[in-house]
Amino acid sequence: MSQPSPARTRYIALATEEFATHGYHGLSLANLAKTAGVTKQALLHHFGTKDALYNTVLETLTDRLLASLNDTPDVSPKLRLILHFQDLLSGETGNTADARLVLRNLLDSSRETGVAPLKPYLKALLDLARSVPAKKAATDMELLLGLYAVIGSAQYLLISQDALSAFLRTEDDEALKAARQKAVATQLKAFLDAE
Questions:
Q1: Of 177, 34, 13, nearest to 101 (Cα)?
Q2: Which has the minimum average pLDDT: 49-63, 83-97, 151-165?
């Protein structure tokens, strides 16, 4: 598989930020092209359509999420899930654009279209959760609802960093990062330990 061109990689990064900020319907290819300093035709040359660009952005996001999940050490499934979410909340793997895009995508996935680009990532999380002894008998629905709650909390806490800092009147980002990691780990443990 060949590496994408630097221009294509740059367009994907810019589109990630813009889709995260404005959503699919709020993003204009003309405005994205202006931000990128190119013509709309240049973007279309690389992606063909807005849908193809959006799918590429979501596939790239899914690849990052799966890489983070698969990059955890060889530990129990429960600890692997906890480490994955701590990694996402550290701000090093994930960023606020990724967090916003995850939330937007989970909200925008539709039964009618059958479009669920994060499905490979969600399936990997589901498989790991099912490997936790207390969750072996759980249904897919029970597992997915519990995981959605954790994903939603983790992503929301990540994108709310500035609001939390302002409310708590703190500039201690490391303490806030540790507190949100602990909060999500506690929520995840409670979900994974419940029968």
A1: 13
A2: 83-97
Residues 6+ apart with CB under 8 A from 84: 68, 69, 72
Terminal alpha carbon distance of the chain: 44
Helix (H), strand (E) counts: the chain? 10, 0
* CA gap 195, 193 in Å, rounded: 6
Contact in structure between 151 and 188 (CB atoms under 8 Å): no
Task: Find out whether 81 and 188 touch, Cβ atoms under 8 Å.
Answer: yes
Note if the pTM is more than 0.90. no
Please, what's the b/e burial string for 142-154 (b: 16 or more CB within 10 A of its CB; e: otherwise)?
A: ebbebbeebbebb
| Six token digits for residue 8 | 């294509």
